[in-house]
Structures are given as C-alpha cells and as structure tokens.
Design goal:
about 150 residues, mainly alpha, globular
Amino acid sequence: MNNEFMTMASEALDMFAFLAAELIILFLAISYIVGVLQEFLTPEKIQSILSSRNGKGYIVAALLGAITPFCSCSTIPFLKGLLRARAGFGPMMVFLFGSPLLNPVIIGLFVVTFGWKVAAFYFLIAMTVSVVAGYVLEKLGFEKYVKP
C-alpha cells in the first residue's frame, strides 16, 4: 500500500511539474506577443477600434475573445493590454466574458460532439450574452469599480 501511495504521489508531482512548466511558458509567450502588439497598435488605435461609442467595438471584442484560448494565461495579459490602452469598458467586459465562452476548443468540441448547427447556435448565443452583459455593465456604471 505504501508503494502504491508513492507511485500515485510521484505521478501527481510529475503532472504538476509538467502543467506548471507548460502554463508558465504559455503565460510568458502570450505576454510577449501582447507586448509586441502594443508596439504596433497604438493606444489611440485600440481606443478607436474598441470604443464603446462605436457599436462595432463590442463585436470586435467578442471576436477577440473567441480567438483566445480559455485559460487565464492568455486572457489576463490581453485584458491588461486593453486596460493600458484605455479601451472602452463595455468592450473589455465583452472580451472578458467572451474569452471562456467562445474559445476555439469549446467550439471545436461542440462541432465534433453535436454538429455544426448546434455549434453555430451556441456561438451566436454566447456572443449575444457576452455583448449584452458588457453593454449592461457599462450602462450601469460598473467602470467605477475598476482600480487604476
């Protein structure tokens, strides 16, 4: 029994080390890519694209959320870049909601499991929920709760 416990503990430690290394590399790579993008995309350009005055900003933010992987290793650095660029609050919230709901892995699993019609329906519903949630939070004045 003791040998079995040691084997399980060793396997768990190996898995932890592997996942920790993988997530650290992913976080650093995404942070670097966001930094490079910030060199080419000026804050003014990001503000104009993701402005809450521009209705397209909400859709662009949802699509940006859809192309980022689910994990916070990509979502958080991307959101930090949007905060630095002073993108609109509503579109930033749409991105934050859309990222886990619309990520490519989930959409791919929906296509394989349920077919493309159900996946498209899910995508449209998740996108609508994300956009509506971001819009409502902005209109209710939740921006005042974001720390500088």
